[in-house]
Amino acid sequence: MASNSIRLTQSIGPRGAPAQRRWTVPLMVLYTRFGAGLAAAALLLCTPGSSQAAGTLPLAELAKPGRVLVLRHAQAPGTGDPPSFKLGDCSTQRNLDAAGRAQAGRLGELLARAGVVRAKVYSSQWCRCLETARQLRLGPVAELPALNSFFGRPEQREPRLAALRAFLAGLPVDGPPVVLVTHQVTITAFTGQGIASGGGALLQLNGSDVPRVLGEIESN
Q1: Number of domains in the chain
Q2: Does residue 31 fall inside a structural domain?
Q3: d(CA 99, CA 102)
């Protein structure tokens, strides 16, 4: 599939129960890393639902009113962060490499070609997310703690997701494009999808804290 397209996936259903046939994150990985609670939730996410026709949407879909792109940070080799991790100190974190910076820049160029040249951009406070957001060149980047990672911190999962849902519920359904740069763990918990570095899910706001998942952009 071309890097400037979106792969359709099953629309999200009631909170915590997306009707999704495709599952891209091994259940054992979820159990090992996040415990039995998330693994049990994953079983619910895997319950078959009605199918949706396959197809693609152009990146210009983001330019429509009430659209939100939830983007995983670009390529940053490794997993998690070093034991010395400190928020606000990039030297203690896992960061983008040259390929990751180029990847984020390419996505920004593709969005611009599709007519998305400005957006409200929010980011996790992790350096790799902030750098990804800035490389898009879509406008000023605001830090949003609700997008912060809870990898290895299962007690932070529900408070983070609740804050993110509240944020989305407060956005205008007819507002300008919004880009949220976050982490794999956040996107998977929120949408039930596994997303590659530099990829993301496109949402349609509906005035609730459970926006509709329209599709997925592939990493470029």
Answers
A1: 1
A2: no
A3: 5
Q: Would residue 5 count as lying in a domain?
A: no
Strands (E), the chain: 5-8, 56-58, 67-72, 120-123, 141-143, 178-182, 200-204, 212-217
Q: Which amino acid is at 111?
A: L
What's the count of helices (H) and strands (E) in the chain, helices before strands? Answer: 6, 8
Domain ranges, residue 142: 59-217
What count of other Cβ atoms lies within 10 Å of the Cβ of residue 101?
Answer: 18
Q: Tell me, yes or no, whether 200 lies in a domain.
A: yes
> Residue 3 falls within a domain, yes or no?
no
129 exposure class (CB count in 10 Å sphere: 0-12, 13-18, 19+): buried
Q: What is the CATH number of the domain that holds 148?
A: 3.40.50.1240
User: Are the beta carbons of 6 and 56 closer than 8 angstroms?
Assistant: yes
Q: What is the pLDDT along the chain (220 residues), one digit of tens a residue?
A: 444 444 444 333 334 444 343 434 443 444 444 444 444 344 333 333 222 322 346 798 999 999 999 999 999 999 989 999 999 999 999 999 999 999 999 999 999 999 999 999 999 999 999 999 999 999 999 999 999 999 989 999 999 999 999 999 999 999 999 999 999 999 999 888 888 999 999 999 999 999 999 988 866 7
